[in-house]
Write the structure tokens for this entry.
Amino acid sequence: MAVAIILLLVAIASVVFHLFSPWWWTPLASNWGYIDDTITLTFWITGAVFVAVVAFMAYCVFRFRHKEGRQADYNPENKRLEWWLSVGTGIGVAAMLAPGLVVWHQFVTVPAGATEVEVMGQQWQWSYRLPGKDGRLGTSDARLVSADNPMGLNPDDPNGKDDIVIQNDDLHLAIGKPVKVLLRSIDVLHDFYVPEFRAKMDMIPGSVTYYWFTPTRTGTFEVLCAELCGAAHAQMRSKVVVEEEKEYHAWLEKQRTFAELSGQRNVAKAAYKTGSE
Amino acid sequence: MVDVPFDTIAGIPAAEAPDVELYHPKSWWTRYVFSQDAKVIAIQYSITAMSIGMVALVLSWLMRLQLGFPGTFSFIDANQYLQFITMHGMIMVIYLLTALFLGGFGNYLIPLMVGARDMVFPYVNMLSYWVYLLAVLVLASTFFVPGGPTGAGWTLYPPQAILSGTPGQDWGIILMLASLILFIIGFTMGGLNYVVTVLQARTRGMTLMRLPLTVWGIFTATVMALLAFPALLVASVMLLLDRLLGTSFFMPTLVEMGELTKYGGGSPILFQHLFWFFGHPEVYIVALPAFGIISDLISTHARKNIFGYRMMVWAIVAIGALSFVVWAHHMYVSGMNPYFGFFFATTTLIIAIPTAIKVYNWVLTLWRGDIHLTIPMLFALAFIITFVNGGLTGLFLGNVVVDVPLSDTMFVVAHFHMVMGIAPIMAVFGGIYHWYPKVTGRMLNEALGRFHFWVTFLGAYAVFFPMHYLGLLGVPRRYHDIGETAFIPASAHDLNAFMSVAALIVGFAQLVFIFNLIWSLFKGKEAGGNPWGAASLEWQTPETPPGHGNWGKELPIVYRWAYDYSVPGAGRDFVPQNEPPARLSAQGAHP
């Protein structure tokens, strides 16, 4: 009796916890509401199955617990019941898988007009790069990384000269514009993770990975690293600021290009040399 | 299948296996230490696995102390936290669960359940244990080497696993890989034994479709392990070469702490494919023996045949086969070609169907049973709840697009602890309470057992159920301190503290269990040969504990499946597998 009640209470407590938990996903700030919907659907289906199985068990324990003189049924199998249960399960699984695959198709199909933004991870900081006026990002290579060129950009690539390089600072994005985030690393695996955007993807040294999303809410969002990258993994933070088009352009104006930054460094070097002579 | 229980094997001659074939121990050393008796080897495996498991348990306390009360304990820093999670995960998955289910339960139960005198290659079986012990010692030694154990996470993903930004980059990772290689060598020797014994050494009448589901579970898991571990073996060897000889199997051109390294041209993703080609079957290598054990516990203690035996066998085999084509569901956000997601999400969700069938058949076995709420039965019920819970959250993570926001968060940690931590451990405990009387001849203490059960089950559920919601909120895994993060409310810290207190209480209950194991060995109630009234063969041995050779002079002959409980008109509520049908007829059960 007590056992049956406790089993039932475990199921009830789980449902109550789910309904009243103050710990729930962050308010959405991207177009990936469909992902949230798929999670909600999955919660409904799996929650119903969980409660049904535990309640059935609790009932059996209550109803068929050992008493003097009770004899169990002898019932090796029941083909019809087993097939019905399998088919029912198949339908439940398909009801979750089908919408999931439809949304995944959207997730991997980048819209044609998406702006490219590069995020580079290294132990343990984030750097960003935006295409300049030509709308194209120049090439890069981990072999070119140096104190003067921390992102390893190719100085001989004309497409890269006007790229906007953002280091030790926040990334800004314009609201309502689809963004294709190109992800790159120069040392170990990282993962560019902003919970409010729902999307995430690992960054792998030697490859460029990507995902896309459209920011739908202005505000400042925290960037975390979601793939273990060594000792300071938990401290690898940055911020993404989503703002209105006008403010975004004002911010963009103030940023330096790769050419400006290298020029500046060369001037600084020259000045240092002159000073030391 | 209705015909199975009364299936007669007419005219089978008494099978007399000549006793001289066995190498009987001649000294204390060969009886208790360098023993070739599968039962002794099983106990050696179990004690070793539980001992190193205690280390992993203590590590989990340290992790929970840090997570629940960050900054309070000055002796835990970020590096140590990473070392704790790595060692905890690796020990629990491989050195405890795999070794205990296959080396422990497998060695003890396979020969007894199939009616064999021993494993077919006793000497190799002995070697298997000693190589396993060596692997455990090498692993444990990493706590004492300069730099300490590796902190690369139990997945050991390169490049970070072998670079200097990760703790234990020096000796830790090298010895970890060496230990894994040894473990796989040791396991292979044992595994070949289990497979060949099940296929070749079954006694007369023990057809494959009369095997207890425990044997089916362990057998299928062993076949899978023999196919999956080689992937981990080559991955470990290649990573070791990358670390020691500077090869670049998994290492692209990269910068280490601002300096360009000599590595170039390798693929970090290749390691992940190899790791998970092993790693996903590994989940079922742990789960299938648990499935089998739970089936037998439920059937025995509900005094009812397992419902849908044939479907249960095919579900085990189907799960085993399917689990080799789902591995990349661990890699949806790894940066592999995103179109793989369609394939792997589909295969992963298909696995839910045979798995669900198993759950239905367990609860349908309870239906109209005669349920004895013994401690093994309680653990079996707890197994079903935690396994269903963890299995259902697997449908979130397996469904590729749902995985995107949840991967690498505490949701994943909660999921896999529920499904392949708590649930299999429930099966381990249930199995130990069930078979301890056969192994020692004494019952485990009932009161201590019930205390252990309730604290462990409810406590572990209280740790891991709420943890899903931290993941839903977005709390990443493998963070020693979530610190000041805008989207994480202060209440999340309170929840962490609550989970830590619950985890420490659960940990304490395990000490009670260990105490019970030792105390009952001397003071436990005498069990007799078959205290549960079980039908399967291991309870029908002439001696308890069974002697070397298991069966005395004559091997048993099997006349029926292992689940003849409450057969109408059979007198008692169970019919042992080796009971000849003639006696039944005499009782008027069968025409």
User: Anything to note?
Assistant: The longest strand of chain A covers residues 115-122. The two ends of chain A are 92 Å apart (CA to CA). Chain A has six helices and ten strands. Chain A touches chain B through 101 residues (CB under 8 Å).
